[in-house]
Fold this sequence. Notes:
12 helices
Amino acid sequence: MSLLGRKSIKFTLSQITGRFDQELIDVLPSSLRFVSHNGAGYDSIDAAACAARGISVSNTPGAVDASTADTAMYLIIGALRRMHIPYTALRAGNWRGRMGLSHEPEGKTLGILGMGGIGTALARRAAPFGLKIQYHNRSCVPNEQNPMGAKYVSFEELLQTSDVVSVHLPLNAGTRGLIGRNEFAMMKDGVVLVNTARGSIVNEDALVEALESGKVWGAGLDVHEHEPEVHPGLIGNENCVLLPHVGTATLETQRKMELLVIENVRSALERGTLLTPVMETRKMVNGNSHL
């Protein structure tokens, strides 16, 4: 994350400073005008508080789409095929272990929850596997953002009719805990849940209950509710494919992210605007400020 004032630039990490919340923002110097965040998700930053202080915030949309969608597709296949069971059995010297018959993607309905850049990239990857694609978003996306012709459905219909539900939403007050016991109850028996967005969107206690009851056939998770801690009920369930939030951990994606951060810094310095301001600060006169 880079912070730009009028006369200086400082680089820091949210892992060191903690969350960019109201308390921290209140003590930032009045000269600060821009925050260039190296990540697509920016729930670690109180963007509304930044906007109130006249601070514009940018993120890295687009740069993470391919690698995150690749990870989601990997988790979909892995959860449908219950790949964790033979994978761990082979490494333990037990060949296939207790592997039974699994499922293939062809003919299944994939419900994409959040049809932004990552959701669209996943639709492109899922179609060749024979998945029928539907999505729910705040509104229908334009045709140019829906090249696979995915069907728009309500939130409830997506839960009720999808064989695989893949989560691609930002984390905010409206999405925290969005998938809980009531939502799992609405889903098909034997559904697969995949989450590469933010762990706190899914209530993991409810997910573990649904896995143990058989309501959920399998889960593929790259993100977790209380990272870096992982729910013991997920660790102990062999029908889960689990990753430690590595969806964007590729050389290619990290390079694209870092270049976009630098381009935002350059734009702030040279033009007094950010290239990719987040929604909360987009309405400012791109920052309501000048260097």
